[in-house]
């Protein structure tokens, strides 16, 4: 559920915005550092942690509501730091052969996405378990990791010409299925919390599809719009998998209801429901292209951002046992909307927070990547050798200390490894302690 800024030189202060696996936390990375915000109230937004010792953070991923965070900085784009923010310590770090484009976590695995490869780490000791090499070129780092412990699937593009999705089981370390989701290349993918459904969108951005796992059968097909294509920036399921939201470079955020059309038509006796039912029943007599459009579902609800062109991420979360739509933008705002669960329609804006802890009253909305290559061999220049990082356990301080260069650079020992660092285990973290790693949330809306 994140949209990475690939242009650190842009004027905007925020470089990264994302929600964690169960949308209990919001993470932002900026030119000055990073912040973590707990999401438990409509009226207030206070950060639980702020760190300004690590500048230019363009990736920050938190493991549920735990103290484990993964960080990547524009100053060292090939280096991943795994940190314990409550202790103010660095657990370990790894350096890779190319710039890190995405990092995904669940309670079993940590996945690092490069342009043409994926590294799967065991989160209990951070060792590399498996490397998926020579993947189709993926300059945007499009991938998703299921938050479920047993169905810990990884999704990534299976083609650069078409919208194929490769599903890989990170527990058994085996490929599961290749899904032909779209005619155009992928733009976004997302799993539901149970790891039983996958949502996809293509670069065209007009159609959203949902597939069941592990069989890959198509469950739902929704049309985001008819008039214009869109750059889909985020897809996100609600925790109970009843809703799917998506935001793009347009000003409209769409919410789709994941229900069977037949059941819906039986319940909907309004003139619009009858009209839609009539269209669907006649779809088999229409040309294939028109038939597909008629049979596709439409938005159950929508929300409007202040203007188009905002880079943003969205999610649906239960606040005070009421489902809310949350949209966080790179302009530095968090918008909270009410969702009418029975009627849908236009979502009303409840609150708009700035991502520095301030809030405002509701207002009416107005209309470095290269090919993957091995690390430098022994005897390379000092500049290349400085890219290597050994695992470092930092002393416990009030804030993170800046990374220091290792005393000895490590040679590239095995071309099958491809990641350097992480020699020490995570013995200092209480993996089985719920206060350190709380159990996965299964909240219902």
Instruction: Kindly report how far apart the N and C termini lie.
Output: 18 Å
Mean pLDDT rating: 79
Secondary structure class reads: mainly beta
Helix proportion: under 10%
Query: Could you tell me the radius of gyration in angstroms?
Result: 22 Å
Q: Which oligomeric state applies?
A: single chain
Sequence stretches where pLDDT stays below 50 over 5 or more residues: 5-11, 288-295, 357-416, 428-435, 437-445
Which term fits the overall shape?
Answer: globular
Strand percent estimate: 35-45%
How are the SSEs placed, and which strands pair?
Blueprint: E1 14-19, E2 25-30, E3 34-38, E4 49-51, E5 57-62, E6 68-73, E7 76-84, E8 89-96, E9 102-105, E10 109-113, E11 117-122, E12 128-133, E13 144-145, E14 153-157, E15 163-169, E16 174-182, E17 186-191, E18 197-202, E19 207-212, E20 218-223, E21 232-237, E22 243-248, E23 252-257, H1 261-267, H2 271-281, H3 288-295, E24 301-304, E25 312-319, E26 322-329, E27 333-338, E28 345-346, E29 348-354, E30 359-360, H4 382-385, E31 419-421
Parallel strand pairs: 24-28
Antiparallel strand pairs: 1-2, 2-3, 3-4, 5-6, 6-7, 7-8, 8-31, 9-10, 10-11, 11-12, 13-14, 14-15, 15-16, 17-18, 18-19, 19-20, 21-22, 22-23, 23-24, 25-26, 26-27, 27-29, 29-30
């Amino acid at each position: 559920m994140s949209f990475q800024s690939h242009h650190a030189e842009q004027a905007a202060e925020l470089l990264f915005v994302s929600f964690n696996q169960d949308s209990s936390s919001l993470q932002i990375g900026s030119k000055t550092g990073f912040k973590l915000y707990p999401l438990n109230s409509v009226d207030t937004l206070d950060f639980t942690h702020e760190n300004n010792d690590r500048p230019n953070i363009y990736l920050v991923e938190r493991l549920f509501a735990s103290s484990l965070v993964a960080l990547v900085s524009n100053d060292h784009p090939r280096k991943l730091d795994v940190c314990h923010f409550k202790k103010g310590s660095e657990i370990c770090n790894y350096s890779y052969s190319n710039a890190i484009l995405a990092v995904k976590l669940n309670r079993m695995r940590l996945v690092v996405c490069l342009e043409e490869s994926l590294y799967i780490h065991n989160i209990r000791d951070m060792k590399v378990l498996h490397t998926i090499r020579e993947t189709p070129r993926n300059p945007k780092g499009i991938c998703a990791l299921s938050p479920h412990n047993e169905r810990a699937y990884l999704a990534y593009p299976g083609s650069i010409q078409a919208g194929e999705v490769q599903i890989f089981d990170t527990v058994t370390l085996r490929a599961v299925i290749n899904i032909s989701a779209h005619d155009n290349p992928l733009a976004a993918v997302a799993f539901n919390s149970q790891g039983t459904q996958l949502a996809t969108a293509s670069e065209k951005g007009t159609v959203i599809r949902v597939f069941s796992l592990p069989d890959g059968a198509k469950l739902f097909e929704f049309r985001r719009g008819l008039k214009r294509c869109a750059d889909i920036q985020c897809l996100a399921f609600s925790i109970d998998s009843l809703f799917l939201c998506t935001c793009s470079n347009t000003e409209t955020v769409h919410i789709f209801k994941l229900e069977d059309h037949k059941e819906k038509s039986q319940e909907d006796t309004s003139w619009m429901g009858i009209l839609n039912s009539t269209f669907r029943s006649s779809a088999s007599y229409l040309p294939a292209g028109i038939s597909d459009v008629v049979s596709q579902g439409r938005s159950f609800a929508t929300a409007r951002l202040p203007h188009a062109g905002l880079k943003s991420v969205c999610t649906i979360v239960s606040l005070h046992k009421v489902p809310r739509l949350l949209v966080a933008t790179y302009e530095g705002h968090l918008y909270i909307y009410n969702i009418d669960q029975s009627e849908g329609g236009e979502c009303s804006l409840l609150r708009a927070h700035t991502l520095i802890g301030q809030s405002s009253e509701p207002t009416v909305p107005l209309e470095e990547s290269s090919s993957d290559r091995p690390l430098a061999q022994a005897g390379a220049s000092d500049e290349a050798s400085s890219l290597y990082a050994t695992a470092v356990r930092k002393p416990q301080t009030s804030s993170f200390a800046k990374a220091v260069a290792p005393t000895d650079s490590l040679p590239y020992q095995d071309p099958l490894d491809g990641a350097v660092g992480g020699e020490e285990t995570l013995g200092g973290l209480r993996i089985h302690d719920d206060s350190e790693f709380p159990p996965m949330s299964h909240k219902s809306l």
